[in-house]
Amino acid sequence: QNLCLGAAGAGLVSLMDADDRSSPDRFAKLLAALRERGGEGGWDAVCCGVRIFGTVSAGMARYVDWQNGLLEPEDLAANRFVEIPALHQAGLYPRQLLKDTLGGYRDLPGWPIDADTWMRLAEAGARVGKIPERLYGWRQHSLQSTRNHGRCSLEHLRRCKAHFLLRSLPRQVGVVEVWSVGATLEAWGWALDE
Question: Using an 8 Å Cβ cutoff, are 122 and 77 in contact?
Answer without folding.
Answer: yes
